[in-house]
């Protein structure tokens, strides 16, 4: 297979775009696409201060690399979740983020959950009795809260995460399967900022997971290859596998599923947006927006484990 | 005469002469979920596998 641009041997074949590219042209193509979506969804400008949430994985480190190559003012934040499980998962992830930032002369902020809140995430999960024996629910809650807090306290204009198209399609699939109306109204490339909530964006939302893996490998970015020890057998992974089977037989299915969802919502398929937004109010303790009547879920969890 | 295919801690062997797509199909591995590398270079599904080659598959799915 040959590169459509230069005719040399192709390194990546994107069947959903009917496009094969060589290494060099692919490494130019990916940032061009990301820039296109940053503009299309009006995510942020080159004048704004951007905070990238990095986990040490291929998507977030690849995204940070792309944003820097595109000339954005992007710093990183790493959240030390304290996941060890005999393989020092969090320790290794942090090392890789630190290595990337020092190699590129970038600023990385580290928030250590154990130091901030007294316990690592798996212990928080046990103490709060959330998540049916797995810390994933608490982990998500902690990450969302701490990322937003870090961005607010350090004065960043926008918080950027490395969710790729496969992540978004899997979440959309789960939300559709359970008809989670409120989540379907909120899911998207951009969550606007409001009082207590920093704008959140996903510049990789139209980039396939396989393309990000190829980008990170071809750019020689050292990332954590091991899965989070708690992710094995997760529903998200199962949905991703299902969608990949579909994609294999019908190239472009994942992209169509996600992009047409966004377009349909924009044209009014799901309504009553105002109603949902009105039901959010600032948490009396931390000031972040919540839909619950009193304290937000994060503060309630912290309250519970402190008792 | 064989081609070695490695994915995480598993090793497989296939006959040389088939292309990568056929090899993945034979091993019941979904091409969408992996990137294949040979000596550090990415290779595509139409690549004919030759005797003695070692192909490393990188799993692309992450997250829980």
Task: Describe the protein's architecture and organization.
With 307 residues, chain A is α/β, with parallel strands linked by helices. In chain A, 49% of the residues lie in helices and 12% in strands. Chain A has one domain (31-306): 3-Layer(aba) Sandwich (Rossmann fold), CATH 3.40.50. In chain A, the strands form three sheets. Chain A has a six-stranded mixed beta sheet with strand order 5-4-3-6-8-7, sandwiched between helices. In chain A, strands 1-2 form a two-stranded antiparallel ribbon. In chain A, helix 7 packs across helix 10 (235-249). Chain A starts with 11 loop residues before the first strand and ends with a helix. With 64 residues, chain B is mostly beta strands. Chain B has a single domain (3-59), classed as Beta-grasp domain (Ubiquitin-like (UB roll), Roll). In chain B, 11% of the residues lie in helices and 38% in strands. Chain B contains one helix and five strands. Chain B has a five-stranded mixed beta sheet, with helices on one face. The relative contact order of chain B is 0.32.
CATH topology of chain B: Ubiquitin-like (UB roll)
Q: Give the uncertain stretches of chain B in residue-range form.
A: none
User: What is the end-to-end distance of chain B?
Assistant: 39 Å
- Domains of chain B (count): 1
Report the major sheet of chain B. Answer: 5 strands, mixed
User: How many β-strands of chain B, per DSSP?
Assistant: 5
Strand count of chain A = 10
**CATH first level of chain B: which class?**
Alpha Beta
Structural class from helices and strands of chain A? Answer: alpha/beta
Strand content of chain B: 35-45%
Biggest sheet architecture of chain A: 6 strands, mixed
Task: Provide the CATH top-level class of chain A.
Answer: Alpha Beta
At CATH's second level, what is the architecture of chain B?
Answer: Roll
* Whole-number count of domains of chain A: 1
- What order do the SSEs of chain B take from the amino end to the carboxyl end, as H and E? EEHEEE
Number of helices of chain A: 13
The residue fraction in helices of chain B comes out at 10-25%
CATH fold-level name of chain A = Rossmann fold
Please, what is the average pLDDT of chain B? 94
Low-confidence stretches of chain A: none
Radius of gyration of chain B: 11 Å
């Amino acid at each position: 297979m040959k590169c459509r641009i230069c005719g040399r041997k192709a390194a990546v074949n994107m069947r959903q775009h009917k496009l094969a590219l060589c290494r060099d042209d692919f490494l130019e193509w990916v940032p061009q696409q990301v820039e296109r979506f940053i503009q299309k969804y009006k995510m942020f400008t080159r004048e704004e201060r951007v905070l990238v949430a990095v986990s040490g994985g291929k998507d977030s480190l690849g995204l940070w690399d792309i944003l820097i190559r595109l000339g954005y003012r992007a710093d990183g934040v790493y959240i030390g979740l304290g996941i060890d499980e005999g393989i020092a998962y969090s320790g290794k992830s942090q090392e890789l983020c630190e290595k990337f930032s020092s190699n590129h002369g970038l600023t990385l902020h580290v928030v250590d959950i154990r130091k901030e809140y007294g316990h690592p995430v798996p212990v928080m999960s046990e103490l709060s009795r959330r998540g049916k024996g797995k810390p994933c629910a608490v982990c998500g809650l902690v990450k969302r809260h701490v990322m937003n807090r870090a961005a607010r306290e350090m004065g960043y204009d926008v918080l950027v995460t490395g969710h790729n198209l496969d992540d978004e399609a899997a979440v959309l699939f789960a939300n559709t399967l359970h008809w989670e109306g409120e989540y379907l109204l909120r899911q998207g490339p951009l969550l606007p900022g409001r009082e207590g909530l920093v704008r959140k964006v996903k510049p990789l939302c139209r980039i396939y997971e396989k393309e990000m893996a190829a980008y990170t490998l071809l750019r020689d970015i050292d990332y954590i290859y091991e899965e989070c020890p708690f992710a094995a057998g997760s529903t998200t992974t199962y949905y991703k596998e299902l969608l990949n089977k579909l994609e294999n037989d019908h190239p472009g299915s994942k992209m169509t599923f996600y992009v047409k969802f966004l377009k349909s919502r924009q044209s009014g398929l799901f309504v009553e947006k105002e109603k949902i937004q009105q039901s959010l109010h600032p948490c009396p303790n931390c000031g972040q927006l919540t839909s619950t009547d009193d304290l937000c879920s994060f503060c309630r969890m912290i309250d519970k484990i402190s008792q | 005469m064989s081609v070695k295919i490695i994915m995480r801690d598993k090793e497989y062997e296939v006959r040389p002469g088939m292309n990568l797509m056929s090899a993945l199909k034979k091993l019941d591995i979904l091409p969408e979920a992996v990137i294949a590398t040979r000596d550090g270079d990415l290779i595509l599904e139409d690549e004919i596998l030759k005797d003695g080659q070692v192909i490393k598959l990188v799993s692309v799915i992450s997250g829980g």
